[in-house]
Fold this protein.
Amino acid sequence: MGLRKIRNGEVIAALGGIALIVSLFVPWYGADGTSDSANAWESFGIVHVILLVCGLTGPLLLVLHVQQKTAAVPLAIAGLGTWLALLAIALVVLRGLAFTPVHAGNREWGILVALAASVALFVGFWRSLGDERIRLKGRWSKPADGSLPDGIEVKSVGPGASADSP
């Protein structure tokens, strides 16, 4: 388990996912003139389940990034999560703000929290996909600028040669 491998994209995605899950339980709609309110679980048929799945991918990325030795699985989750975050944004905007349920009255603050959390989820996944740094000997590498830290040996492998041959 390498907690030092955590980058800001994974943290943003995890916090956005947790905030999206929490936002499903706060008031989304209020009845006109009364103190009654309805959250996402009470207002939607399947949309809240899709938003829950989208929200769970944020913390999942953080856990897999810390747990896995290679970047393959976290990159796959980040790629899938980017699309799920876009789906969450679209569902909150379209189903939550534009086309409200029949019984809904006034929009409450929970919709705005869900929208902000969905955007944070997308930003976290996007940053996780775009961050090329790796942890080498206690410091972050900078592969994007073409230089490697001292002490890293790179062997060239040409056509017909193997990595073991001189």
About this structure: Residues 3-145 form one domain. The chain has five helices and five strands.
